[in-house]
């Protein structure tokens, strides 16, 4: 192996990549429990299909566009690595093989479009969604990943490397990117039938809690793994991820109790995810105390943002905008306040003597990714809607998208009904027994 190679760091990154992969099934469970029974399988499938589509595209051209040598101005990579050919197996990214880095970044590319699906739950055609995933990953995610993650000594991505935007693990490239796309698609597809009239409560809160637990577990790979080495920065990112998530859960629950009078399990799960989102860009540059502050602010702010969608009439089905867009913006901007200048990435925020410079750079990153993702996502969604159709027919939406799109249902109630029919006494027997009891009581 070449000089500088570390077997320990490589093993750490491979394990982290596997943890990030688990986040996509975790997201499927999280979203799947939040929808109504008739949409459960469709919601699970919308996350799982990203595993298939993005994995293939990543090998064909995605890795080359995101991490190939810069094609100019830090906007996109070139096509040197089409089919992942031409990659030197002995080349290193830091102390790990380039191939290990490619595998790790693939898992980021997979989960990002899957996050969008929650904004259009209950009403999207599966084939149209699959097409959107392929197009969106190609023209939105791969270029933005190059902007933010590609480093080449000042000649890399135009946001991260050239302009100094700090995004340790994907607050802009993943969460703001997906949240802005979710907002665009929610506007293109419109509101669900019965929005603000019919109850649309989660059908399985245990499934939601399981999904949030898997997300929390996998997020340690997402954040700590982004150090690309088993070192002190990874350890700090791990600690910051834990405490920010915990603080966000407490903040969300406190807001919920004061506003609505109850501590809900859905609030606990959503608060945890909001904290995970917010600490993602900041985990490598803030202290644990700063991470607690980031988590608390995000928990309260995201809980408040959820309530705005009803006032605005925005049918963001599973709160992708309120959690991922708002949480990603908060976490990215707070780097400009809480970055210590010595945890991992060197720039200091306003509260640590760095002035407003880093905050201004964070605003640039947030605005650029949000605007680019929203506009391109709206254009892609509108084009699909006007050509092959993106939204299912109204009768399909009302009767249940699982049967129409997948010819399956998540739960088989017919067997339960047949069992009850076999064990229940016949009506005539019930009537006879009742008459006999009445006669005995009369005596």
From TrEMBL:
It is a multi-pass membrane protein. It holds the Pfam family Ammonium_transp. This is Ammonium transporter. It comes from Kitasatospora cheerisanensis KCTC 2395. Its main location: membrane. Belongs to the ammonia transporter channel (TC 1.A.11.2) family. Signal peptide: none annotated. Keywords: Ammonia transport, Cell membrane, Membrane, Transmembrane, Transmembrane helix, Transport. GO terms for molecular function: ammonium channel activity. It is found in: Cell membrane. SUPFAM superfamilies: Ammonium transporter. The chain crosses the membrane at residues 12-31, 43-61, 94-116, 128-149, 169-190, 202-222, 228-255, 262-282, 288-308, 320-339, 359-381. GO terms for cellular component: plasma membrane.
């Amino acid at each position: 192996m070449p000089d500088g190679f570390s077997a320990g760091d490589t093993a750490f990154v491979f394990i982290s990549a596997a943890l990030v992969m688990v986040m996509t099934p975790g997201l499927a469970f999280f979203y799947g429990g939040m929808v109504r029974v008739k949409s459960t399988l469709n919601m699970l499938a919308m996350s799982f299909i990203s595993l298939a589509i993005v994995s293939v595209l990543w090998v064909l051209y995605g890795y080359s566009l995101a991490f190939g040598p810069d094609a100019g101005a830090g906007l996109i990579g070139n096509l040197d690595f089409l089919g992942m050919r031409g990659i030197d197996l002995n080349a290193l990214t830091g102390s790990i093989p380039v191939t290990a880095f490619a595998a790790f970044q693939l898992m980021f590319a997979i989960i990002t479009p899957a996050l969008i699906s929650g904004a259009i739950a209950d009403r999207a055609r599966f084939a149209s969604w699959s097409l959107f995933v392929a197009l969106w990953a190609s023209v939105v995610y791969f270029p933005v990943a190059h902007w933010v993650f590609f480093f080449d000594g000042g000649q890399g991505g135009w946001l991260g490397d050239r302009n100094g935007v700090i995004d340790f693990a994907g607050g802009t490239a993943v969460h703001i990117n997906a949240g802005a796309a979710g907002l665009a698609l929610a506007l293109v597809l419109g509101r669900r039938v019965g929005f603000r009239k019919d109850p649309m409560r989660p059908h399985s809160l245990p499934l939601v809690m399981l999904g949030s637990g898997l997300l929390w577990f996998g997020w340690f790979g997402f954040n700590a793994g982004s150090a690309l080495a088993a070192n002190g920065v990874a350890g700090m990112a791990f600690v910051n991820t834990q405490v920010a998530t915990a603080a966000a859960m407490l903040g969300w629950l406190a807001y919920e109790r004061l506003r609505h009078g109850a501590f809900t399990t859905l609030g606990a799960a959503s608060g945890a995810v909001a904290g995970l989102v917010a600490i993602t860009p900041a985990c490598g540059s803030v202290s644990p105390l700063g991470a607690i502050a980031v988590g608390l602010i995000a928990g309260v702010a995201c809980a408040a943002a959820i309530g705005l969608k009803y006032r605005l009439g925005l049918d963001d089905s599973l709160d992708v905008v309120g959690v991922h867009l708002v949480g990603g913006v908060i976490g990215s901007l707070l780097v400009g306040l809480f970055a210590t200048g010595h945890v991992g990435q060197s720039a200091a925020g306003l509260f640590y003597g760095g002035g407003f410079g880093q905050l201004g750079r964070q605003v640039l990153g947030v605005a650029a990714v949000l605007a680019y993702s929203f506009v391109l996502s709206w254009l892609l969604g509108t084009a699909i809607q006007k050509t092959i159709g993106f939204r299912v027919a109204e009768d399909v939406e009302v009767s249940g998208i699982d049967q129409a799109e997948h010819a399956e249902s998540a739960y088989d109630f017919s067997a339960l009904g047949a069992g009850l029919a076999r064990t229940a006494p016949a009506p005539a027997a019930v009537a006879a027994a009742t008459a006999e009891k009445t006669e005995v009581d009369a005596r």
